[in-house]
Q: What sequence folds into this?
C-alpha cells in the first residue's frame, strides 16, 4: 500500500467521510445549550477550527447565521464549496484561532472534538480565549468540548472509526505515541487507510495536543476575566444532564459565559 506522512486536515474528503456523518447529537445538544445558557436570542454563531464545516453547514441549514474559521485552507475550501453547492454564502475563512478579529459580534460559539487542544502553549490558549471574548457579545456563550486528563482512573487513548461511501472505504485508528507530563504535550499517531477500486493508500499523521486537568483549565480561564465557567456536560451530549466536574472527569463540554 502506498503510504504518505501528511496531515489528515489536508485531506478534507477523507476527514469529512469519517467525522462528517457524526453531527446529529452534537447539533441538537448545541441548540439546547444556546437556548438554556445564552442571554437573549441566538442568531449569530461562530465556529473556530470549523474544519470541513460538518456542524457549521447544519447550523446554516437550521437558519442561524454561522461563520467559521480554520487554519487549514484546504478544509476551508472544502467547507465553502459545500456551502455554495447548497445555496449558502461561503462563510468560512482562513485564520488562526489565536489571532483573529470579526466585524460584528456573535451570540454564541462552539468548538468540539479536541480542536482547542491543538493550541500547544498556555500563551496560545489564552490568546484564543481573548480573541473569542472580543468576538462574542456579553451574555453569549462558548461551548468548548475536549478531553481532560483525569487525575484518577484510566484515560481513553485509542479510538477507531470506519466509514464508506459508494466505492470509497476509510478505516482510521488513533493511538498514543508519547506524552510529556512536564510540557503537557501529547502526541497521537493517526492512521487513515483508504480503499478504492482503483487502489489503496495509507495516510500516517501525528496529532500534537496539549493536555489539561480540570484544575489547569480552570486556572487558564481565570486569566481571561471576560469568561467564566458557567456549566459543563459530557460527550453524551445531554443538555438536561450537566455534570459535576471531579478527578475522574475526562470528556467534557465546558459552557463558558461571556461576562
Ligand atoms: C479535529 S478538527 C475539527 C474540525 C471541526 N470543528 C469538526 O468538528 O469536525 C481540528 C481542526 O482544527 C484546525 N486548527 C488547528 N489549529 C488551529 C488554529 N490555530 N487555528 C484555527 N484552526 C486550527 C485544524 O486545521 C482542523 O481543521
A:
Amino acid at each position: 500500500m502506498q503510504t504518505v506522512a501528511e496531515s489528515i486536515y489536508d485531506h478534507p474528503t477523507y476527514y469529512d467521510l469519517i467525522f462528517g456523518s457524526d453531527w446529529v447529537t452534537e447539533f441538537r445538544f448545541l441548540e439546547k445549550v444556546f437556548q438554556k445558557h445564552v442571554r437573549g436570542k441566538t442568531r449569530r454563531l461562530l465556529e473556530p477550527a470549523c474544519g470541513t464545516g460538518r456542524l457549521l453547514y447544519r447550523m446554516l441549514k437550521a437558519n442561524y447565521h454561522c461563520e467559521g474559521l480554520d487554519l487549514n485552507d484546504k478544509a476551508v475550501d472544502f467547507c465553502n464549496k459545500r456551502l455554495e453547492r447548497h445555496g449558502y454564502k461561503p462563510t468560512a475563512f482562513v485564520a488562526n484561532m489565536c489571532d483573529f478579529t470579526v466585524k460584528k459580534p456573535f451570540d454564541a460559539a462552539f468548538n468540539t472534538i479536541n480542536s482547542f487542544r491543538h493550541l500547544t502553549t498556555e500563551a496560545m490558549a489564552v490568546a484564543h480565549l481573548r480573541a473569542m471574548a472580543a468576538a462574542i457579545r456579553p451574555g453569549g456563550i462558548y461551548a468548548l468540548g475536549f478531553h481532560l486528563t483525569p487525575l484518577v482512573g484510566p484515560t481513553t487513548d485509542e479510538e477507531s472509526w470506519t466509514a464508506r461511501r459508494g466505492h470509497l472505504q476509510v478505516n482510521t485508528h488513533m493511538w498514543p505515541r508519547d506524552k510529556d507530563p512536564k510540557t503537557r504535550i501529547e502526541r497521537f499517531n493517526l492512521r487513515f487507510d483508504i480503499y478504492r477500486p482503483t487502489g489503496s493508500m495509507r495516510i500516517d499523521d501525528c496529532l500534537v495536543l496539549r493536555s489539561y486537568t480540570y484544575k489547569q483549565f480552570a486556572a487558564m480561564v481565570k486569566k481571561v476575566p471576560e469568561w467564566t465557567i458557567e456549566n459543563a456536560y459530557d460527550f453524551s451530549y445531554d443538555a438536561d444532564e450537566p455534570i459535576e466536574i471531579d478527578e475522574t472527569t475526562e470528556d467534557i463540554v465546558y459552557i463558558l459565559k461571556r461576562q
Notes: The first strand starts at residue 2 and ends at 5.
